Amino acid sequence: MLLTRAVEERGLSLYKQGRVTGSFYDGRGQEATAVGATFALAAADPVCPLIRDLGAHIVKGTSPAAILGHYLGRAQGVSHGREGNVHLGDSERGVVGMVSMLPGMMPVAVGMAWAFKLRGEQRCALAFFGDGATSVGDWHEAMNLAGLQRVPAIFVLEHNGYAYSTPSSRQFVVDPLERAAVYGMAGVAVDGNDVEAVFEVTREARERALEGGGPTLIAATTMRMHGHGAHDDASYVPAEELELWAGRDPIEGQAARLRELGVEVEAIAAAVRTEVDAASAEALAMAPPDPAGVLEGVFCEGEARVVGAGAAPWSGFAPA
Amino acid sequence: MLLTRAVEERGLSLYKQGRVTGSFYDGRGQEATAVGATFALAAADPVCPLIRDLGAHIVKGTSPAAILGHYLGRAQGVSHGREGNVHLGDSERGVVGMVSMLPGMMPVAVGMAWAFKLRGEQRCALAFFGDGATSVGDWHEAMNLAGLQRVPAIFVLEHNGYAYSTPSSRQFVVDPLERAAVYGMAGVAVDGNDVEAVFEVTREARERALEGGGPTLIAATTMRMHGHGAHDDASYVPAEELELWAGRDPIEGQAARLRELGVEVEAIAAAVRTEVDAASAEALAMAPPDPAGVLEGVFCEGEARVVGAGAAPWSGFAPA
Amino acid sequence: MERVRAGLMERTYLEAISDGLRVALAEDDRVMLLGEDIGAFGGAFKVTAGLQQEFGADRVFDMPISEEAIIGGAVGAAIVGMRPVCEMQFADFVSCAFDQLVNVAGKLHYRLGLAAPIVVRLPSGGGVGGGPYHSQNPEAWFMHAPGLKVVAPSSAADAKGLLLAAISDPNPVIFLEHKYLYRRIRGEVPDGHYETPLSAQTVREGEDLVVMAYGAMVHAALEAAESIPEASVRVLDLRSLVPLDERAILDAVHDCAKVVIVDEANYTCAAGAQVASLIAQRGYEDLDGPVVRVATPDVPIPFAPALEQAVLPGAASIAAACRELLAY
Amino acid sequence: MERVRAGLMERTYLEAISDGLRVALAEDDRVMLLGEDIGAFGGAFKVTAGLQQEFGADRVFDMPISEEAIIGGAVGAAIVGMRPVCEMQFADFVSCAFDQLVNVAGKLHYRLGLAAPIVVRLPSGGGVGGGPYHSQNPEAWFMHAPGLKVVAPSSAADAKGLLLAAISDPNPVIFLEHKYLYRRIRGEVPDGHYETPLSAQTVREGEDLVVMAYGAMVHAALEAAESIPEASVRVLDLRSLVPLDERAILDAVHDCAKVVIVDEANYTCAAGAQVASLIAQRGYEDLDGPVVRVATPDVPIPFAPALEQAVLPGAASIAAACRELLAY
Ligand SMILES: Cc1ncc(C[n+]2csc(CCOP(=O)(O)OP(=O)(O)O)c2C)c(N)n1
Ligand SMILES: Cc1ncc(C[n+]2csc(CCOP(=O)(O)OP(=O)(O)O)c2C)c(N)n1
Ligand SMILES: [Mg+2]
Ligand SMILES: [Mg+2]
Prior knowledge:
The complex is a heterotetramer, with two copies of chain A and two copies of chain C. Chain A is an alpha/beta fold.
């Protein structure tokens, strides 16, 4: 989580320095959800992150330099300059990068999970999405299909109460967690800012999935501490709300618990700083992509490469 | 209902005589739902019928000759030869013809209802759809928006247990009626073969809608007694199931109740036969459309004509 | 490269497609079929009849009415190694899955280096009294979406061969199967596995004028050519729209100097517009007359036969266009 | 017919659109705005800033993320007499509402005689480092869908005038507003209500060659023309793609004999393909050289500026095409 935040902070400062094109989106305050849930996956379980889930990439082992290089649009970044901001995904590591269209990767996650089930593999697929994304037709189709086929999928709703500037009250009248039941799947609420709690419910969901118990909807309550993107000051969020959540910072919360266990949190933080400094230098040194190859790769020419079974250096499990 | 069935029977026989192009779709066995629900609307309340809802057209006053002419693709049919089979709609009478894409008219019904609410008009909009249509993304978006905006809309689910050949068990795991609650709307079950019961729940839903109580999902249980279309022998439906439902015919059920009230049902039936004979002759005499005008009307050239406030000769209410 | 194994059989266009699916299911267990009513029922047009019985309900799936989830689910299965073949009940319903095709499937490889080998079968086209929602030809929308291949066979043999080529292809392929041809066209179809290349084919030789068409319009073009014995009219069956066989198109223009391009789809921005623009730019010097297009005007396809026939191109309108151009 | 009331003001392209919305809301209470985050927040690009405050939350609506329901809901409101103007947060998301636009809105009048006067505002186009999902130009998809009008202003004055014309139009209109132009282009914009006709306009006179473009590419074309002082290069701003001003296009070909057609959209089946095919068929005799197209090749729009600039047409690539054609 520390690393996640540090990488995003670095990305944001690169953006503010004008080195990152477009806008910049981060998941400040929501790190525990992406990290905790992805940590509960095995290496071979693919994950479909969304806007606030840099932690999922980090946990899956995407290097900070490759991520910063991606933000910068460099040739050696994850996307080789073809994609920007949060639209990255190292498929070798089992990360399927998001499309913008919300929540377009949910049906894709269902399809992956379905294939695992058909082939009798002990794998599951996990997709993240926000409260706003639940209003899209794709959400319904994916939830319905997942429930019908009882696929080994885990859906993680990151309920931060806002979709861009739109509060949940203008998105739905009933909490989406209650919708799990109407698709015949388990629904679990969790404190999205408690990384261990998120890990635990995801671990359970994964177990259920692999045992044939079907998909689970996990609703993680959290708060987006920054604007939707770096261009958004989020003045529509009441100050008290932010203050309240500032006191629930997932990283500080975990740090306190770790300190009690005798972990040297400050040393880790220092190590992370060093790592990100190095990564940032590495990323800034990467060359921009060569326009000569810009037309290549619209179509796959050789064998279709499949989503990798991952390396998962940070997984709570051994590779499956 | 008698008239509905008689018109569809005539359409089907015209189809079997090879006079109707494409296929032919009817609502045999489901007449009570379309008729009962539409009868509970005021003249000014628009309705969006679906495949099984010829009764909605009839109740709104579309003439049997215009309907048969439509089936036959004649110039004086409802669609002047431009549309066929169930895709008709006399918008002057407040009937908005269906598109094929299921349930594409639901968002449209929400929009009509929303406009009525914004303008403070005492009108509501009603949309029919089948159990299969509930799996489509549009269904979710429309339900969610309707619940959010508390629009005066009535959604009538015609739950006949099949979508073409696909039984409900391969469409969803939880009855869609239970989904009403997760959109914050009332959900009401009704015997779809009992015309008076359908009328009553629709009347209540309309009252609720006009009082600002928001939309209602009515789930009418019924059975499609014919195949999906005339080309489909529905051999996938167990014979016992059809037998069971044959004993629950909506028309015979009502006829029995009417007879007890002293109504001369046979006389009505005879009158209907005469009317449909005449309509059929009239429709067969209609000219085919003139190809000279085929390119006209892709765009509206003059003033936009709005959905009519209807005539509703059969409405349970006076025109609003 | 066409691989042909022993044996030929007279089959309808529809039977050829069914046979292609059967061959693919039998030889590759990554292949799975997804669609509405395609299982025991065999699909709205019976293309998949018997396949679920033969290969099991864990290979051939009846799906809920969820076009986006069908395509998105297929993409998901594909990126972990399956070869899903999806059926839209009518091509018209592909509009409901437009986003998944255009934004997910089409861009995946370029963005992430991840191939999505799915096939989407689209029973398309008019001439059958289907009206505005059962007659559409959506190919141009997908030609204008990078990353999707688009093929449109006109013969039974090509229908099977292009289907098998599409299933082998590591990319998403839109497979247009023309409803009008299903049972009206038959021809010799090789048994077993073979693949038709994604390129154009001359189906009638000629030197005075070339008619370019694909799908059902190839047959209308052939009929038109036959009706003009006084000239030597070539017919080029495009077969593949993405990739478009630009070489074959320009060669035909070079040989014939006069060209008529036929679309059953609506006129504006149709496949034929692209072909015409290609010729106007790169075949200009070979031209000996205007690049003539024949297409359905920009109207929804009306239901009544008299109206439908008035808007769809046919042998008569194609022949008239040819005659006029020949006289140029 | 352009109705202009007193007063002119320098406005950006974006301000001109905002002003158009304000005028429409003020003069016609059937007008309502629907979109995501368009209320108090003022929209992702601030086009609707202040409008909810000014006209109320029962005229300007923050919608859930439901593109199909936004368009479908707008159609419903329109057919009972409202004039909804919808904003897609980015043009790219219109793919999610494709079915409602193409199958419901577009076909309603032809099928049922029911007009659907909605406007769909699409912040479109690249050049801003938006990557594959925030740079698309979807106009050709809708040109290939009968019953939808499609307009694409290039100047501030036309942006407002075409928007007001679109809102008055009894048909569904796709309104392409180019993100790159939002704050980069400014010009004199009349106050109050006026309407720009859905027709092309010559924005630079010339006789040796005509460049046809629309949206942001008009500016690239003008820059290209300026860079070729040795020739007299005309620039025709198409402005409306449906209806397409065929007369103006053919007249320009008649006058100049050489034509370059520019699309920012992907090459295959783009608007430019249609324009080129029109010229190749009906302007053939006036041509004195090939019909040259410049367009973005068939790739998703890459994110990195170096890559994006390599695929998008610009003044340099347009000028190069002009020079080559002038030398023909
Ligand atoms: C289909 C679609 N429509 C609109 C958008 C534009 N958009 C990007 S993020 C966003 C808000 C998302 O809110 P939520 O799902 O709650 O995720 P959060 O940002 O809160 O994590 C919107 C509307 C989109 N990405 N996709
Ligand atoms: C989006 C979409 N996909 C597929 C179809 C093809 N189709 C027509 S009717 C039908 C079954 C509809 O079932 P249901 O909604 O239960 O209505 P019923 O016919 O039982 O009244 C299908 C799949 C369609 N019309 N729309
Ligand atoms: Mg949110
Ligand atoms: Mg049903």
